[in-house]
Amino acid sequence: MIPSRVVADEREKASGVPEELGRLNVRVYYSMLRVADYVLSPEIAVERKSLRDLVSSVYDSRLFYQAARMSASYAKPYLLVEGDSKQVESLAKNTRAFYGAIANVTLAYGLRMLYTASPAETAMAIAGLLAHARAKPLERMPLESPPKSKSLAQQQVYLVSSLPGVGTRLAERLLAKYGTPRRIMSLTAGELAMTQGIGWKRAERVKSTLDSKFARHQDSKAQTRLEN
Question: Running along the chain, 228 residues long, what does each successive block of 10 average in pLDDT?
């Protein structure tokens, strides 16, 4: 397998993280980086800080300047904090002010935060980012697991809400109006369309799903038309 690659700042050599990355089949190249400690791709960079250095950088404002530079240079900047978060109370002069500053810098600059306990965990986090650098959101949300242990009413809502374009709220509205899932399944498209929030287009999708013959190897274009 071809090793993943990452560019690390020269000053990271002594941190132990590059060594751990090597054990994870990640090839590390060194450079004097002006922004961030690790560059994973043209979009992704990681600034690694010990918990003590993070607290210090809040009070001397370094964190804000670093976040601004990372945000300007990379679409997906990460702040990786290494250490025991329980020590914040003993390190920060004012815990509330500290977390306020962290909230400010992450929201203002779109800084993503990761927490690890050791250099080995830091390496695993970086390797994980490398492995999933091209991850994309799901095109469609997966259906909720069937509520086997829930009440009959909840099971009925789940059944009706599985129809295309019908969520929980519309399912409850349909059940309140027509009484049972069976009655809803037997409605014509016109009757469905008369329910507030359904409309004719959605009603046709529901009836098409209910009335179309099942085909295991259904043409992908036809399936796409059904879902759109």
Answer: 86 96 95 96 96 94 95 96 91 93 94 95 95 76 58 86 85 89 87 82 86 67 48
Q: pTM, whole model, 2 decimals?
A: 0.62
Count of CB atoms situated within 10 Å of the CB of 171: 20
The H-or-E segment that residue 34 falls in is none
Residue 101: how many other CB atoms lie within 10 Å: 19
Distances (CA, A) of 26 to 40, 48, 176: 11, 17, 58
CATH code 1.20.1260.10 for 152-227: no
Domain coordinates in residue numbering, the chain: 4-131, 152-227
118: left (phi over 0), alpha (psi -120 to 50) or beta: beta
Pairing state of beta strands 38-39 and 112-116?
unpaired
Order of strands, sheet of 76-82, starting from the edge strand that comes earlier in the sequence = 26-31, 4-9, 38-39, 44-50, 76-82, 112-116
- Please say whether the structural domain 4-131 has been given the CATH code 3.30.450.30: no
- Whether residue 80 contacts residue 46, with contact meaning beta carbons closer than 8 Å, is answered with yes
